[in-house]
Specification:
Largest sheet: 6 strands, mixed
Number of helices: 6
Strand content: 25-35%
CATH class: Alpha Beta
Distance between the termini: 44 Å
CATH topology: Nitrilase/N-carbamoyl-D-aminoacid amidohydrolase
Order of helices and strands: EHEHEEEEEEEHEHEEEEEEHH
Number of domains: 1
Oligomer: single chain
Radius of gyration: 18 Å
CATH superfamily: Carbon-nitrogen hydrolase
Strand order of the largest sheet: 5-4-3-2-1-16
Helix content: 25-40%
Shape: globular
Length: 297
């Protein structure tokens, strides 16, 4: 089957970061997602994706170690196990972006997305590669840069799901770096999801152009997910939602609102990937042998 149905869910913060524990917020966020997940199942979604650190607030405006308690093991933590059960029950692959504590080294934390296949199998994970450290986004306090080396030696893992589509992940700030998009495409990605937490300002203009440009440059579909609303006590700005799915031609296939909890659904036609790549031939015409100096520190 060449057509795959994908779904993206964006949800504003539930709970109070000042009075609720990370576990309480996690449970409130999971409860808010559940009806939208059920809706996705009813609509036949085959690949479902959530926003960055979807069970928690975007806590990086603080430098408060209390949020270390929000981290979960992967795949043995609460949220991953729950999503495995849902995936199996509904024959749905799921990309699950959560705050991760390393499975072997305690107090080593990552911004991660677990990838679960449609039969509930844990396939692997992607850890955010590029970690910002600017006012309001103190991510290096919370996240270690990802080391995503696979058995083949690549930093850009791609997961072949039971629905016969190759899925990659690139998280939030990663999207500003063209190298990762290309790395995922070269490893066979047909659909890449970009879970994000981004607020109004210059970012909102970039949100509208960067992922379509990456989709065109690499001949693949991209699903971009952003949370809506504001989050006290930090109030760094409005998370403007506007999650969307874009085609290899840069066409917007589905777009969410700026300010509400929402599921959007789009059908991905894999034949369009081949048609677009045959038309533009960017992979034939690239010259990696002359790019060596670009990667020197």
């Amino acid at each position: 089957m060449s057509t795959i149905r994908t779904g993206l869910i964006q949800v504003g913060l539930k709970g109070d970061p000042e009075s609720n524990t990370p576990d309480q917020i996690r449970d409130k966020m999971l409860a808010a997602h559940w009806p939208l997940m059920e809706e996705a199942a009813q609509k036949g979604v085959q690949i479902l994706s959530f926003q960055e650190v979807f069970t928690q607030p975007y806590f990086c405006p603080s430098q408060d170690a209390k949020w270390y308690k929000a981290a979960e093991k992967i795949p043995d933590g609460h949220t991953t196990k729950l999503m495995q059960e849902f995936a199996k029950a509904h024959n749905m692959a799921i990309v699950v972006p959560i705050y991760e504590e390393d499975e072997t080294i305690s107090s080593l934390y990552y911004n991660t997305a677990a990838v679960i296949d449609a039969d509930g199998t844990y396939m692997g994970k992607y850890r955010k590669t590029h970690i910002p450290q600017v006012a309001g986004f103190w991510e290096k306090f919370f996240f270690t840069p990802g080391n995503n080396k696979t058995v083949s030696g690549t930093d850009w893992p791609v997961f072949h799901t039971a629905h016969d589509v190759n899925v990659g992940v690139y998280i939030c700030y990663d999207r500003h770096f063209v190298e990762g998009w290309r790395g995922l495409a070269l490893n066979g990605a047909e659909y890449v999801v970009n879970p994000s937490a981004t607020v109004s300002g210059l970012s909102q203009h970039l949100w509208q152009v960067e992922q379509p440009a990456a989709a065109i440059a690499n001949g693949m579909y991209i699903g971009a997910i952003n949370r809506p609303g504001t989050e006290a006590p930090w109030n760094i700005g409005k998370f403007y939602g506007s999650s969307y799915v874009v085609s290899p031609r840069g066409e917007f296939l589905a777009v969410a609102s700026e300010n509400k909890d929402e599921l959007i659904v789009a059908d991905l036609d894999k034949d369009v990937i081949r048609e677009t790549r045959d038309q533009w031939q960017f992979f034939r015409d690239r010259r990696p042998q002359v790019y060596g100096d670009l990667t020197k520190g």
